[in-house]
Amino acid sequence: MNIKSLLLGSAAVLVAATGAKAADAIVIPEPEPVEYVRVCDAYGAGFFYIPGTETCLQISGYVWYQIGANGYDEDSSAITGGDTTGYIGGSTGDGWLKSTRARVNFDARSDTEWGTLRAFIRLQATWGTQVDGPVSVDQGFIQLGGLMMGYSESFWANSGNGGPSNWGSHSWGGMYYGYQQRHLVGYRFNGSNGFFAAVSLEDDTLSGEGYMPDVVGKIGVSQGWGAVWAKVAYDESFDGSVPTLGGAAALFGLNDGGWAVQLGTQINVPSAPGSSLRVIGYWADGAHAYNVGSPSVIFGPTSESYYGGAEWSILASYNHQFTPTLGASVAFQWFNDLYYATTDASSGVDAWGAELSVVWVPVENFEIRTELHYDDVGTFNVPATPAGFDPDGTVSGFLRFTRYF
């Protein structure tokens, strides 16, 4: 055996020994990767994927503290349109009227071959002069593409599409525009060139009264210059008969259902981004669910409300955005020929209201808002009081601090 053969044999033995030891070595497995929450940017800011799913979830809401005061008393009271739960209209007595509200929204969305599938839940609680309740489900609905079903704002107030065609004036209170929430099934369509449309079947009684629903429809165009729209609504359960008023003889104006129409436009100010003029006209054939309402006057010690909404109403509102964080709006609304409450009988009484709203956002997600509202109703024309009664105008207002998240 020569030297070369010896060296080759020794090398082979060493390699074999090393391979055996490597095969017997303990290998520590790598930990499985942790699935952290992923941002979902398909539906805007604030959405994230629910771990292990393709569903995106957004959690949002706000907390406000409000200090209000008014000039309403037991003989003359008014309630503005909009979300009156937090508004100070309608409260009687002197002194400060305080309100605190907490709201949390859960918004879950995912893509399907039929469009976006969405579920929305709103939890809310308000503590204040008139209300002091526990947390409740304020809204809950399902959407699939343009189809919507559940409990939410009536399409008469807000269909969720059509931009300025929703709500009333530029303020939070919105003046008088017929705010209400309903069980409904609706469909919304957004086409090219800003065209939009919506229709809904709504239930106002929630008591199984027959099989005919209320119906709301709207159509319009929203573009950079502004918007124009039309709405029509039918209240199938409206009966215009007039009950006895203050011991007077009953009046009758029977009506098989009630109709309402709205025509509106908004003109954006080109040189002032965020500034716009909005004008809306309303008509209704009785004081039914789709009449936008009016300053509701309570007369005398019996506290009977004699007036409902008007036959005609015109609302004009202008908002000016001074800076991205400071804006102010003014609005005026006229009510021609108020109906007696819940009827289609005219009283011949007119009314009007006005408001001023200022909104300041000093830091992101923190808003300071103040609104001042005035209502005035003409001379009472009630059978029980042939001499008439002219109540004083009423003033209300609030200062509110809101933290959004």
TrEMBL record:
Function recorded in the entry:
Forms passive diffusion pores that allow small molecular weight hydrophilic materials across the outer membrane.
Its protein name is Porin
User: What are the transmembrane regions?
Assistant: none
Q: Where in the cell is it found?
A: Cell outer membrane
Return any one Pfam family short name. Porin_2
Which keywords does this chain's UniProt record carry? Cell outer membrane, Ion transport, Membrane, Porin, Signal, Transmembrane, Transmembrane beta strand, Transport
Q: Which InterPro entries match?
A: Porin_alphabac
* Presence of the UniProt keyword Nucleotide-binding in the record: no
Q: Which domain of life is it from?
A: Bacteria
Q: Which positions carry the signal peptide feature in this UniProt record?
A: 1-22
Stated family: Belongs to the alphaproteobacteria porin family.
Domain comment quoted from the record: Consists of 16-stranded beta-barrel sheets, with large surface-exposed loops, that form a transmembrane pore at the center of each barrel. The pore is partially ocluded by a peptide loop that folds into the pore lumen.
Which species? Aquibium pacificus
Mostly located where? membrane
- Membrane topology, as annotated: Multi-pass membrane protein
